[in-house]
Amino acid sequence: MLRYLRLQYAFMRFSLAQELAFRGNFLAKVFVELLWLGLVLAFYQVVFAKTPQVADWPREQFLFFLGCFMALEGIIETFFMSNCAEFSELVRSGDLDLYLLKPIDEQYLVTCNGVDWSTAGNIVVGFGVMGFALRDMGWQFDPLRVGLFVVLFASGVAMAYCFMVLFSALSIWMVRNQNLAETWWLFTSLMRYPKEMYVGKWAGPLGKFFTFVVPVLLIVNVPARVMVKPLDEPHLALLLVAATVAVFLLTRVFFRFSLSRYRSASS
What we know:
The protein has one domain. Helices cover 76% and strands 1% of the residues. The chain has 13 helices and two strands. Strand 1 (53-54) and strand 2 form a beta hairpin. Helix 3 (59-85) runs parallel beside helix 8 (143-169) and helix 3 (59-85) runs antiparallel to helix 10. The two termini are 34 Å apart. The model has no long low-confidence stretch (mean pLDDT 88).
């Protein structure tokens, strides 16, 4: 484990050095990311100026939910998104051969070798929004809730990472997988809204599908709910942890299976 931590630290330093080589571009990327987050927050401020709650989430609770989404998405985009997006290029060019020769776990090396520091600010903003929301609620510190939130938030990050790896592994067969970003955008569009919004003739079955079959709606909903809602749905917390373990094992098996079908540049 110490070996992987040292390697991750080296990846982070090298990625930061690359970003700072073009400081103007880096600052522009950071500004665009923060501007997008500001527009999202401004939009929901307008929404709550017209209505006291969205689904059964009052303003402060929904802001905590939104901050949880921002922080989780920031972690995924900072540490994994660019690496998974580049996997298809490694396959197409044959550079994946060099990764497979390294004495390190292939999945870790492929998915964690770079860090996009321009989106790291999203993580800070996300946790900041959560903190302000809790302050406005007059939330009292509860170690049980905090512990559950940390475990479930980590589970949500792990599940989101696994879905991204599953999509990127398809590059072995598709070679040029340009749908990863679009598919991830679809998933984030589902994750950014509470599952209570999915009610009605067609939205109800859709919500159940993305809760129990492809459990995308659990990724943000469950950690946020644990912190600001009554603890009346423990089965969802258990479902998130169990689904994360199952999806992680599926991801490991599928990723190794996909590598077994890889034909190197020399073959």
